[in-house]
Amino acid sequence: MAMELEEFLSTLEKLADQAEQTFAAAADADHFEAARVQYVGARSGQMKTLQKQLGALPKEAKPVGGKKLNEAKSRIQAAMETAGDRLKPSTAGKQSGIVLDPTLPGTRRHLGRTHPITQTIEHLKEIMGRLGFAVVEGPEVEDTWHNFVALNIPEDHPARDPLDNFYLSVAGQSAVDVSAHEAQLLRSQTSTVQIRIMENKAPPVRIISLGRVYRPDPPDRTHFPVFHQMEGLWIDTDVNMAQLKSVLTLFATSYLGEDVSIRFRPSFFPFTEPSVEADFLWNGEWVEFGGAGMVDPHVLTAVGYDPETVSGFAFGLGVERLCMGRHGVGDIRDLWRNDLRFLHQF
Ligand code: PHE
Fold it and tell me: Which tens digit of pLDDT belongs to each residue from 209-257?
């Protein structure tokens, strides 16, 4: 046997012995890692060096050298695995002897999901988007200009009563004082957003706004002090009541997925003239979903539009009503209880 090969094999033997001892003696993960780098490190581990030496051996010595190198590698690998198992942080399962059995039946876990109101809002946005309405947003804390004045609701109007609104108290002032002057309140309707959009954009306008509104109603099956509205507004040079009816009919048909009838009843809102209540025929019953009408010229003037050149319609629908009607929910309070048994059904 050539000298070179003999030397190579004995180095190999010594290295494997040494590595076995080092791994066996490794007391913690740091020692283990140091040994790993020293012996089998990919860049400068000692096995790597020997591998290179193998390449330099005479041709006829290579088969034996290669075989022995592989044997040494296996020994070191085995020593490393034993040490690795010994040092691995023991898991609870191991201690109690529990072994994962993938054939056992699983336990179903309920993943989180969006709230039915959120689902409804997404659905409404999608339908109105197809009808060409862009989604906009407005603040929930409003001033009296946007919630009342610009909407043609004058200072002495009963809609501004502190008993019917959530005014934000101002130090040193009673709610009554506050309601009469420039004050802030939680918006009582999404019509505020109409004003904000028109103040900042020249016509045409074709938007919907969905969000929370607040009214101090005692909770019962159909009332809750916070609920959601979808406000729609379309302003252009020639928008009329027939288009209002078409849009609401298309909306109702899309949302209910069937041929629904829609009916307008005369009504009154300070910010629309004429005004209507919109009812949908739902399961053979007329249900009121909100108010609508042609935007009052006073409102157009308040935002700097010219009522002689533009006109438009607006509507405000109750999102909870739509959601409850569609899913057969009988009590609005269920939408706020956050009982998982209820929410899991959506
Ligand atoms: N803002 C009205 C309400 O809250 C609904 C409405 C919106 C009516 C737009 C007419 C036009 O009852």
Answer: 999 999 999 999 999 999 999 999 999 999 999 999 999 999 998 998 7
Instruction: Please answer whether residues 286 and 301 qualify as being in contact, where contact means their C-beta atoms are separated by less than 8 angstroms.
Output: no
Is the C-alpha dihedral spanning 302, 272, 274, 120 positive or negative? positive
Where exactly does CATH 3.30.930.10 map onto the chain?
Answer: 116-343
282-304 pLDDT, tens digit each? 778 888 889 999 999 999 999 99
Question: What number of other Cβ atoms are within 10 A of residue 207's Cβ?
Answer: 20
Look up the CATH number of domain 2-96: 1.20.58
**How far, rounded to the nearest angstrom, does the alpha carbon of residue 190 sit from its chain's CA centroid?**
22
Q: Where in the chain is the domain with CATH 1.20.58?
A: 2-96
**Ligand 1 near 230 CB (within 6 A):** no
Q: Which of 146, 164, 189 has most ligand 1 atoms within 8 Å of CB, for mutation?
A: 189
CATH-assigned architecture of domain 116-343: 2-Layer Sandwich (3.30)
Q: Quick one: tokens of 233?
A: 């507004």
**Using CA atoms, how far apart are residues 80 and 61, in angstroms rounded to an integer?**
28
- Longest distance between any two alpha carbons in the chain, whole Å: 114
